[in-house]
Amino acid sequence: MPHLTQHEVMTMFLALAVLLGTAKLAGELMQKLGQPSVLGEILAGILLGPTLLGHFRPQIYAALFPSTGAMPIVLETVTTIGVVFFLLTAGLEIDLRSIFRQGKSALLVSFFGVIIPFALGFAAAGAFPRFLGAEAGASRLIFALFVGTALSISALPVIAKILMDLNLIRTEMGTVVMSSAMFDDLVGWILFSMILGMMNAGSHSFGGVKRTILLVAAFTLLALTVVRWLIDKILPFIQAHTSWPGGVLGFIFTLTLAGAAFAEFAGIHAVFGAFITGIAVGESTHLRKRTSEHIHSIVTNVFAPFFFASIGLRTNFVSNFNLGITATVIGVACLGKLLGAGWGAHLGGMDRRTSWGVGLAMNARGAMEMILGLLALQAGLIRETMFVALVVMALFTSLVSAPAIHFLLRRRRVLTLKDTVTTKLFLPAMKFRTKDEALQHMCEVAADAVSNAPERFLRLVLERERVVPSGWENSLAVPHARVGGLPHPIVVIGKSEAGIDFDARDGKLSRLIILILTGDNQAQHDLLGDAGEMFSRKEAIDQVLEASTFVELVAALNAPVK
Amino acid sequence: MPHLTQHEVMTMFLALAVLLGTAKLAGELMQKLGQPSVLGEILAGILLGPTLLGHFRPQIYAALFPSTGAMPIVLETVTTIGVVFFLLTAGLEIDLRSIFRQGKSALLVSFFGVIIPFALGFAAAGAFPRFLGAEAGASRLIFALFVGTALSISALPVIAKILMDLNLIRTEMGTVVMSSAMFDDLVGWILFSMILGMMNAGSHSFGGVKRTILLVAAFTLLALTVVRWLIDKILPFIQAHTSWPGGVLGFIFTLTLAGAAFAEFAGIHAVFGAFITGIAVGESTHLRKRTSEHIHSIVTNVFAPFFFASIGLRTNFVSNFNLGITATVIGVACLGKLLGAGWGAHLGGMDRRTSWGVGLAMNARGAMEMILGLLALQAGLIRETMFVALVVMALFTSLVSAPAIHFLLRRRRVLTLKDTVTTKLFLPAMKFRTKDEALQHMCEVAADAVSNAPERFLRLVLERERVVPSGWENSLAVPHARVGGLPHPIVVIGKSEAGIDFDARDGKLSRLIILILTGDNQAQHDLLGDAGEMFSRKEAIDQVLEASTFVELVAALNAPVK
Q1: Cβ B73–A73 below 8 Å, yes or no?
Q2: A&B contacts, CB < 8 Å
Q3: Residues B360, B163: contact at Cβ < 8 Å?
Q4: CB atoms within 10 A of CB B487
Q5: What is the pLDDT of residues B336-369, one digit of tens each?
Q6: What is the ipTM of this complex?
Q7: Which residue does chain B place closest to A34, by CA atoms?
Q8: CB distance from B468 to chain A under 8 Å?
Q9: 3-state secondary structure A29-80
Q10: A481 - beta bridge partners?
């Protein structure tokens, strides 16, 4: 029986450590720049792959990712499992009911947002297949269908992140965009699975294209109706009669693996089975939020990065970069999505500016295009130049979405307490006995930070304090004031061991005092909202009270106890 | 480059689904029988392996787990990653400080609990190596060292489970046993890694045995001192400046993979590197409980079962079963541990009965013996008969520990609300307006269940109610009484939409009423304690209030919101 040698096991763990470490580091850097972390994970792969490491340090590259022996199989196993589990979480996020609840607007945005880019992509690819990187032996029809599909899927997680950052997710525009993107995902994957079936029909032993399409249709239909209903009935039993959360996790992962196996059996890729399983499980009202949190946190943070980083390992992104193909793909993709989704939104009754916003949001692509591209590359449908063009298109559209919407709708990022704290404005051991003394000192510190006179700050804070006392519950007080002409918001965080009377709702002394001074109402609204949400639980306040250094304070604000 | 075929990807997901599904099912069944779930996971592997499926349905077995092509590498990749991540969680559970805090007793129990079984195993194996299943070419010294080590490691997770079930974990005996078992783990693994280094010294290309021992010693020392200190300094920075929990999870898993790679590089197995990394990370006071929960739930419930089920796939447990070897291994293992740990406890000042209890608890073995056995089998040190004997010994000692302690110390399992509820005793929609009406009805239902007169129940409950009103906070009331002669505890759970006044501490009406009637004080203490712990959070009460069917009720009690 083939067996991993000690050297191969070492290489496996070293390669995985380097991949994960680099991917997470680059992902976090991207997030600091306000971009989705998946961009960083892909860039990490390009860095470690043939493009850079393989080009400049071929020996290190060959030692880390050998192309012979068992290592290619090892890496393929890990990345395949990674992407299958990633599609499970993508499926869990889809909410079928919300799609139908949104009604006309969402349906119009989804419909035109899919059909127009599909038609444009289909036409362009049908007209110029060789120019757009069709593989020599590929069928023109299948290639055109593939390009149409690849240009019509939006990236649900990227869109969700952008809308959240811009505080648009709970607006009408936000819900319409989210529902439409979910619908896009579902339709796009079904389309793609059909194409994959057509592509593979000749090459595998199970049977023809009719069989594949029949199996995929039957699987999707059954999974989203009967199986979905069954899961909803079975979940409470599992939660009642098995260990928590082991039983329900085992059930979900077993179903996902079985769904993945069935999809491969049907002649399409495992990820489709995992995605549909995820939707069927996620629809159950009995699925606990904590269960999906557990799955989500490990899968998106540990398993998915292996896959995304591996994209960059596949090919050389410099030598396979073709400006003509890439520009065409980006142009057709953006044009189709902006016109299609924007037009749908306009037909649904939105004003012109918001409609463009919908188009821009739906234009963000991501993981799905890359997965599709990779499968098409492996199946011999497209050449590497087209694969690189698709990856670049996905990266580009994700990158420009947020700034473009920002510019169009004049939305800015929501302010949070974490953004505003600085070392100078953290007072970990205040010794004052009275509210007035404490506030005076805090205002002095604040005024110092903007070279301003403290008296005005204090007067405004105390005025506000007379209207509504700023003591909240559980030892927290949040004095605040609007100070006209302030260049940026100032938040001073003070801690008092003994506690100070801020006339709190629960009568307790306040030990955590957060002074919020802002120049405008919007910033004040943001920061008070952030404090209210973050400190709704006593444990979150305690966590800040335990912080004695500035780093511990930021850690507590960055990841509050929920 | 070698590549997985579509058929291989299908087989991979099918095999993983079957392994996981069977392992979880068997694991849950074992838990129902009060046994650790890992026993079920191993039995699932024996069921699916050469012993049963391979014997009776060889074609299905060969299709699911082919021994040629890429599939053996795929399975080895998944199970190796599974066991490495499992050792990470095992390491996270070790608390070095608590070991030293326990002082003399723990040190004596650890020391004698390791040295006596080690000495007995070493002597037996040194005297009769061939009889005990040493491989033909194996060194007698290394074989004797191996057997000594394999018999001296206790199973921390199994012991923790047994002590918790018997409500012993917070007693002096419990803390001494836990600390000693941790120490055993650490010492046993270091010993074993040395032996592995000696074993591999000839066979791999990196260098001699001195180099391995030096590297292992340096790695362990550095990881538990400098690296541990560094991690403690770095963690707050990561929690402050990266996304939560992605950054910290990425950091921990990258470190673990790097530690695993280093251990392989040093000439020992990857699991040792992951284990030591887990200890170093777990020691940090900045590691959040939620972070380890996330890791723990997915790793122990999804990844570890792949490994444990794969143990049964390795060999035929019937044809390789040798009664002589197995009986000897079990006899020496039990004798050594009981005498050693028991004697240590006695020297530490415990009475005779408790000392025997400590010996019995420390006698539980588990995953570690199997991992050691597997590595020794793969390294050509032991024959399959010895491997089977070690697995059976681990299963046997785990199985008998809890009943034996139960018998010796007359401890019984702690009662929980979940154990006592039945469909008949769940009243999802009570319409009563007053406390007296509600209690009268609930007492009638309770009396009916044991064919008793309700008047006495009601009188006792109301008497108790006059002393202390039974309304707790957040719409919960827990009326209760001790009823002499009751054959078993009765818990009636009633819900009232409108709410009933039970004179609650927070003045609210009670909508969830839990009537607890017990024959003895101990059961009452258990059940009130369970209610107090479970319903300390409002969300847990709300979850029960949302339950409209009996299954939903049990699900809410089984997995309360924490």
Answers
A1: yes
A2: 249
A3: no
A4: 8
A5: 999 999 999 999 888 898 899 999 999 988 777 8
A6: 0.84
A7: B243
A8: no
A9: HHHHCCCCHHHHHHHHHHHHCCCCHHHHCHHHHHHHCCCCCCHHHHHHHHHH
A10: A517
Instruction: Choose among A177, A172, A186, A165: nearest CA to A94.
Output: A186
Instruction: Identify the sign of the CA torsion B21, B24, B25, B27.
Output: positive
* B 185-204 near A (Cβ less than 8 A): 200, 204
In terms of Cβ atoms closer than 10 Å to its own Cβ (0-12, 13-18, 19+), residue B6 is buried
Enumerate the residues of chain B whose CB falls inside 8 A of the CB of residue A300: 246
SS3 A516: strand
Strands B426-430 and B480-482 come out as: unpaired
Contact (CB<8Å) B250/A305: yes
Q: How far apart are CA B11 and CA A162, in angstroms?
A: 39
Give the residue from B31, B547, B309 showing the smallest Cα distance to A241.
B31
- Among A237, A254, A290, beta carbon nearest to B20: A254
- Can you tell me the distance from the alpha carbon of A301 to that of A40, in angstroms, rounded to the nearest whole number? 13
> Tens digit of pLDDT per residue, chain A (562 long)?
678 888 999 999 999 999 999 999 999 998 888 777 888 898 999 999 999 999 999 999 999 999 988 999 999 999 999 999 988 988 888 887 777 776 788 889 989 999 999 999 999 999 998 888 888 888 889 899 999 999 988 887 778 777 877 777 777 888 888 888 888 888 887 888 778 777 765 554 445 677 877 888 899 899 999 999 999 999 988 888 888 788 899 999 999 999 999 988 887 788 889 989 999 999 888 888 888 888 988 898 999 899 989 988 988 999 999 999 999 999 999 999 999 999 999 998 888 988 999 999 999 887 778 888 888 888 888 999 999 999 999 989 988 888 888 888 776 667 888 888 888 888 888 888 889 899 999 999 888 888 888 888 899 888 888 888 888 888 899 998 888 888 888 999 999 988 899 888 888 889 999 999 988 888 888 888 888 888 888 888 888 888 888 888 888 887 776 5
Contacts of B10 in chain A (CB under 8 A): 261, 264-265, 270
Beta-carbon count within 10 A of B389 CB = 28
In single-letter form, the type of residue at position A71 comes to M
pLDDT in tens, A384-405: 999 999 999 998 998 888 888 8
Interface test with B, best of A18, A38, A76, A313 (most B CBs within 10 A): A76
Omega cis (within 30) before B58? no
Which of residues 12 through 41 in chain B touch A, CB cutoff 8 A?
12-14, 16-17, 20-21, 23-24, 27-28, 31, 37
C-alpha dist (Å) from residue B108 to A241, B179, B184: 41, 11, 11
Query: Which domains does chain B possess?
Result: 80-304+327-409 (1.20.1530.20), 417-558 (3.40.930.10)
Is the preceding peptide bond at A66 cis, omega within 30 degrees of 0? no
Q: Which amino acid is at B12?
A: M
8 Å CB contact of B4 and A76:
yes
How many degrees, rounded to 5, is the angle at CA A172 between CA A167 and CA A176? Answer: 105
DSSP B307-333: HHHHHHHSS-TTTT--HHHHHHHHHHH
Tell me whether strands A490-500 and A426-430 are parallel, antiparallel or unpaired. parallel
- Angstrom CA distances, B251 to B36, B190, B234, stand at 31, 25, 10
Closest alpha carbon to B312 in B369, B409, B388: B388
What is each CA distance from A213 to A118, A209, A222, A380, in whole angstroms?
20, 6, 14, 20
**Distances B34 to B296, B304, B385 between C-alpha atoms, Å:** 21, 20, 29
pTM of structure: 0.84
